[in-house]
């Protein structure tokens, strides 16, 4: 009985993959086409997304190698074993602050889009409160409850993304993508600067690998998850450029949503599907927000040895305050860039250094 109960409480490979993909594909799904094209000014930004996905896989693989050396603990716990309590708690606190900021960013993003497209005139506090309290309720169930809910949400999101991309093909203009690499590779490298936040969330295995039923399949989870995310990011960007052109994408705040609004469907029950698809996108943001909220609360509770439930309630108003720091949409975009660079430092450079330190110490003992 004890063995069965333990297995039931661990994340399956499917649940981990669903968490991995849903954590990555947050608000950036609707803004990435504009952000990349704005930097590159060419239609070759789909190459930037693919290259960024490959780089992300490398650093996530490094994080998996590090986590496997400490199979029964999360990143917040074993970083203190590697660097000492003082430095380890400092790094953990920085990461927890990062996740609080990610939560605030996702909350603000969903408020901006919802108030503009769906519930115009609805007070921001009402929209925020709904997402915050539902996410709090789910987080109280722990990572197992989160995994079960996201496993249900995941196929709905994937089907919705496939439907949007399929409908976009009907108004797609291939000439907007030509000629390929007309300005060489420099614009491609330049556009990669806008992609870090798009793949933020892929580091979640640092915190949930110890909760997996089969941690040896973590690399497979990363390969499948990043493959799905890169595919949808690339296809959505290509279709947005093909429909609106490079100049048209730059002038739109949310090109992906404008794509949905520009397509009329005669062979389905609803001629215009934006309300339905926007609602499904809110489920996606809910998944991303909940995982960021969970990671922040997990970090604070493990660093300061306080109750996880109390930490969730403590962070609730803090996240709401952070979501109101940006005063305009330009400041929201600036916040996204800062968070993307922070993700590069915290989850690419830091785990690599920690892995080298761990190997060096083990070789010294040998």
TrEMBL record:
The chain crosses the membrane at residues 12-33, 45-66, 86-105, 125-145, 152-171, 191-209, 221-246, 276-296, 308-326, 338-360. Its main location: membrane. It is found in: Membrane. Pfam families: Spore_permease. It comes from Paenibacillus enshidis. The lineage of its organism: Bacteria, Bacillati, Bacillota, Bacilli, Bacillales. InterPro entries: Spore_GerAB. Gene3D superfamilies: Amino acid/polyamine transporter I. This is GerAB/ArcD/ProY family transporter. Belongs to the amino acid-polyamine-organocation (APC) superfamily. Spore germination protein (SGP) (TC 2.A.3.9) family. Keywords: Germination, Membrane, Transmembrane, Transmembrane helix, Transport. It is a multi-pass membrane protein.
